[in-house]
Write a structure and sequence with these properties.
By secondary structure, the chain is of the alpha/beta class. It is built from 24 helices and 17 strands. The structure holds one DNA strand.
DNA sequence: GCCGTTTTCGGCCCGACTGTTTTCAGTCG
């Protein structure tokens, strides 16, 4: 039983306790336990009680629950809670703007158990009749339902990657000689993915049976000799295709897409007297095979350089491949620093030194510790005094010579009027300031744009953090003139962030590409909230690659000295 | 449910915002 499953059961326990209206601190303890399990480096199910109780936040009860999950796969407590409510009720809780009290009321007073029940009730005007609710709440629920439908069946890149990787491991064990690889939107590094597309070459026909026998399969949608589809736990649809080795490259190309890229490629093939399909590239004249085993050969035969999957969106990559001007894309290993992370001083899970050591072990040469500022009260944000004291502690750790350099920074809130949450002299005393919006998302486009422009106008702001505030599959970006923001950041000599959190990836690929074209400096940051967060940089790097970024476009590919010198506070503003 | 203790109880990050209210409840972060 892995930590993710332990975390899931604890979180579900917390959610159900919340709907029941239990003691909020008990609920918090379970949520906290879920976080701990999800972030812990060792398998908690293997620890004994003493070992578990050494972990802060795990006491007598949680230790027992975790052991029970490790031994039996679930807890009696959790099973009892699940039995008290319809199993679909947690779907309601995950709607934006619907919390445990609302779910409890909906269930108790209207017998609402499913999203369909809820939608009917909202359409019938039955929600507004409830005490404490009105027409606006009803509209809010309908909007949340609509958003959920729009996002249904899609998954965050990181989640799709994890689910796909587990399935690939399982298949490789059963067909050691075969090549198994992920294709589709996952291979292209899209920020969200629909189906999990897998390709197997050189595999025995029995692999299809193994595939539908994967323990996490909930339903078999189709089962043939060369293609099968299943529904996997977590709401993923997974497709597996079996192809002959001589078609591997063609199949990879075909199933990686995008559709638009493929159409353009096939069009080009026709123009050259070829036919391109998932089995290979063939001459029209005599149907002779020109290429098929390797992707590179197919592109080559079409007069093109091999196109990295992240660029296959028909955004000029075919012309660039023909002209041999494709960029040398950034790799995650090019990143030498990470400029956005949190510690236990605010809402992080680990202290300064732990974060520094973990970053060093992740291969980084320098980091900036950027805890939240005071207006983010729920995160225990820093006021000026604490920010300065925290900076002293960060610099003290830096002075220890851990083999990684530390910058003392802050993630300073941009207040609704565009002023910053900390006084200028405080910001000036730090090494780096990331400024971000965390509140009042409902401002009008012009108001929001003016707000962020005003913040960028503050000379102490070095980096604009997660510039559009989007939460993938959950919340749209707030309305803002991104182009004006990018230009303002460039004029100010500041930098703009690609936040690597799987649910943010903000800037997105399109806007990051715009920043590149405007030659606005970009940083790729993890926004880590624990020592395990540095792995997220690969998702930020995926966005960067989709934006055609080269190492030189990104400030934190530079050495520590060069990076520091490139910060706005150490540059003369362009006159 | 966890924790720390002046140690077996009492405190536990809380402010902003919204929509419902007429003094506040629920949600979010």
């Amino acid at each position: 039983m892995d930590n993710a499953e332990i975390a899931r059961i604890l979180r579900e326990t917390a959610d159900l306790l919340e709907i029941k209206g239990e003691n909020p601190f008990k609920i918090r303890a379970y949520h906290n336990g879920a976080d701990i399990a999800g972030n812990h480096p060792h398998e908690l199910g293997l620890l004994d009680e003493a070992g578990l109780r050494e972990i802060p936040g795990i006491g007598k009860d949680l230790a027992a629950r975790i052991q029970e999950i490790g031994q039996t796969g679930d807890t009696e407590f959790h099973r009892q809670l699940v039995a008290e409510f319809p199993p679909t009720i947690l779907d309601l809780l995950h709607l934006q703007g619907v919390g445990p009290k609302t779910v409890a009321t909906l269930y108790r007073d209207l017998g609402i158990r499913t999203l369909d029940d809820l939608e009917r009730a909202a359409h019938d005007g039955r929600i507004r009749a409830l005490k404490g609710m009105g027409a606006k709440k009803e509209a809010l629920i309908l909007k949340a339902l609509d958003e959920r439908k729009r996002f249904a069946g899609r998954h965050l890149l990181a989640h799709a990657h994890d689910a796909s990787a587990a399935l690939q491991d399982y298949l490789r064990e059963r067909a050691p000689g075969a090549t198994i690889e992920a294709v589709g939107s996952l291979r292209r590094g899209c920020d969200t993915c629909g189906d999990l597309d897998l390709l197997a070459t050189g595999a025995p026909a029995t692999l299809m049976d193994d595939f539908i026998g994967y323990p996490l399969v909930e339903r078999v949608l189709g089962h043939g000799d060369t293609k099968s589809s299943v529904l996997v736990q977590g709401g993923f649809q997974a497709d597996l295709r079996l192809v002959a080795p001589e078609s591997r490259g063609a199949a990879m190309q075909y199933f990686t897409g995008s559709k638009a890229h493929n159409i353009a490629l096939r069009d080009r093939a026709i123009g050259l007297g070829f036919k391109l399909n998932e089995y290979g590239l063939f001459r029209v004249a005599d149907e002779g095979r020109v290429a098929g085993e390797r992707e590179e050969d197919i592109y080559d035969a079409l007069g093109l350089a091999w196109v990295p999957p992240e660029l296959r969106e028909l955004r000029g990559e075919i012309e660039a491949a023909a002209a041999r001007t494709l960029p040398r894309l950034l790799e995650v290993s090019d990143l030498r620093g990470d400029l956005h992370m949190h510690t236990t001083e605010t809402d992080g899970k680990d202290g300064i030194r732990t974060m520094a050591i973990a970053a060093r072990e992740a291969g980084l040469e320098y980091i900036a510790i950027t805890d939240h500022s005071q207006s983010l009260a729920m995160a225990n944000g820093l006021d000026e005094r604490r920010a300065i004291e925290h900076a002293q502690r960060i610099r003290a750790v830096d002075a220890e010579g851990l083999g990684i350099r530390l910058l003392a920074g802050v993630e300073c809130d941009i207040l609704p009027d565009g002023s910053l949450d900390l006084a200028d002299d405080c910001l000036a005393a730090l090494d780096i300031v990331v400024a971000s919006v965390h509140s009042a998302f409902n401002q009008e486009r012009q108001e929001m744009t003016d707000r962020v422009l005003r913040a960028i106008g503050n000379p102490h702001v070095d980096v604009l953090g997660h510039p559009t505030g989007r939460k993938l599959l959950k919340r749209q970006a707030y309305p803002i003139d991104v182009e004006a923001i990018i230009d303002a950041v460039g004029r100010a000599g500041a930098a703009i962030e690609i936040n690597s959190q799987p649910h943010r990836l903000d800037l997105n690929d399109v806007h990051a590409s715009l920043a590149r074209q405007r030659q606005v400096p970009i940083v790729i940051s993890s926004d880590s909230h624990s020592r395990n967060g540095f792995g997220f940089l690969r998702w930020g790097a995926a966005v960067a690659r989709r934006a055609w970024l080269q190492p030189a476009d990104v400030l934190n590919t530079r050495s520590f000295a060069e990076f520091r010198a490139s910060l706005r506070r150490h540059r003369r503003p362009p006159s």
